[in-house]
Amino acid sequence: LAHPAIVSREFGIPAVVGTTNATQRIKTGDVIRVNGSTGIVEIVKRA
């Protein structure tokens, strides 16, 4: 597990880690919805 995953698990904080192309697909100003329980990251509105 990645360090952020371990820390979030320890504190009981839902998290999405290991997304392979999120930084390429999500642009500055985009509005996104992150579901830490299911691991789904959705672009709600493009900038």
List keywords for this structure.
47 residues; 28% helix; elongated
Describe the structure.
The protein is α+β, with helices and mostly antiparallel strands and 47 residues long. Helices cover 28% and strands 23% of the residues. It has one domain. It has helices at residues 3-11, 22-25, and strands spanning 31-35, 40-45. Strands 1-2 form a two-stranded antiparallel sheet. The N and C termini lie far apart (32 Å).
Summarize the structure.
This protein has 47 residues and is of the alpha+beta class.
Helices and strands in order:
Blueprint: H1 3-11, H2 22-25, E1 31-35, E2 40-45
Antiparallel strand pairs: 1-2
Q: What would you call the shape? A: elongated
Number of domains: 1
For the report, how would you describe the main beta sheet?
Answer: 2 strands, antiparallel
Q: Major sheet: order of its strands?
A: 1-2
- The overall average pLDDT, rounded, is 90
Fraction of residues in β-strands = 15-25%
> What is the count of β-strands?
2
Query: From the alpha-carbon coordinates, what is the Rg to the nearest angstrom?
Result: 12 Å
SSE-based structural type: alpha+beta
- Give the helix tally: 2
Order of helical and strand elements: HHEE
Unreliable parts: none
